[in-house]
Amino acid sequence: MKFILRAAVFHFLFLYAVHVLAIEIESVPKFNDERVIQAELNKPVSLVCTLDATQADEELVWLRNDAAVLLKEGNNKGRSSLCVTPIYEDNGAKFTCHQKGNSTDQVSVTLNVIFAPNISGTVEVTVEEEADLVLECDTRANPLVSSVTWSLNGSLVDLLADGFSVINNGLISQLTANKVKKSLHGGMYTCTVDSPMYNDSSRHFQVTITDKTLKFPLGPMIAGLVVVGLTALLAAVSRWRKIVKCCK
């Protein structure tokens, strides 16, 4: 009796192992134990999905976050490959492969797209006195940046004394100053991002504060000129009629 039970259990485990191994994904770079691929931005990732030899003629389906991937003809029978060039939006993307008509048996891998913050160079900014100054720094990165700092002419921006405010949302860092003054807000601004994986990076903003220009209200001015013109025209017509009447 024990022998029969052991044989039955062994047979079940064998069938289960065959069933599990019937479909699999291989990748370059290889995925880890959590089936996550550490990918770099814009560096190709190769995915290959295969069925065992007994199902070589069966059709395969690829999904990206539950949306079907369009495959070329001949790239879906028994073995199917994908080449993915990761972009920002691919971070966390899940790629799933299964046999067509049988979505119960499927295998998946997930992309973890690693990239550094993309900030560098110098930007020229001109703003009038008493206008608002808004500077933005792209801080998207994976892993997330550790910190973002703003400096003006080599010194950290004083958020309390000089009327600045900073907003950080994980995508951008925005520095704002309302009603700027030449004496306080002109100069070289620097946005510095500290990354736990990559070197620190910075972007510079050369801000020039110009004199405030007097802005004329064009709408009311044009309306006034039209009224004056029409009044003068009506007066001229009235005067002409009086002259004609006197000459008769």
Explain the overall architecture.
The chain is an alpha+beta fold. The protein has two domains: 2-114, Immunoglobulins (Immunoglobulin-like); 122-210, Immunoglobulins (Immunoglobulin-like, Sandwich). Helices cover 21% and strands 40% of the residues. It contains three helices and 16 strands. The chain has helices at residues 2-20, 182-185, 218-247, and strands at residues 23-28, 36-40, 45-51, 60-64, 67-68, 79-84, 94-99, 102-114, 122-128, 133-138, 147-152, 155-156, 164-168, 172-177, 187-194, 201-210. Strands 2-8-7-4-5 form a five-stranded mixed beta sheet, with no helix packed on it. β13 (164-168) and β14 (172-177) form a beta hairpin. The radius of gyration is 35 Å and the shape is elongated.
Fold blueprint:
Blueprint lengths: L1 H19 L2 E6 L7 E5 L4 E7 L8 E5 L2 E2 L10 E6 L9 E6 L2 E13 L7 E7 L4 E6 L8 E6 L2 E2 L7 E5 L3 E6 L4 H4 L1 E8 L6 E10 L7 H30 L1
Parallel strand pairs: 2-8, 9-16
Antiparallel strand pairs: 1-3, 3-6, 4-5, 4-7, 7-8, 10-14, 11-12, 11-15, 13-14, 15-16
Number of helices: 3
Cα separation of the termini? 140 Å
Write down the Rg: 35 Å
**Mean of residue pLDDT?**
85
Query: What is the N-to-C succession of helices and strands?
Result: HEEEEEEEEEEEEEEHEEH
Principal-axes geometry comes out as elongated
| Count of DSSP strands | 16
Q: Structural class of the helix and strand makeup?
A: alpha+beta
Which consecutive residue ranges, at least 5 long each, have pLDDT under 50? Answer: 1-20
CATH fold-level label of the largest domain:
Immunoglobulin-like
| CATH homologous superfamily caption of the largest domain | Immunoglobulins
Largest sheet: 5 strands, mixed
Helix fraction bin: 10-25%
CATH architecture of the largest domain: Sandwich
Structural domain count = 2
* Proportion of strand residues: 35-45%
| Strand line-up in the sheet with most strands | 2-8-7-4-5
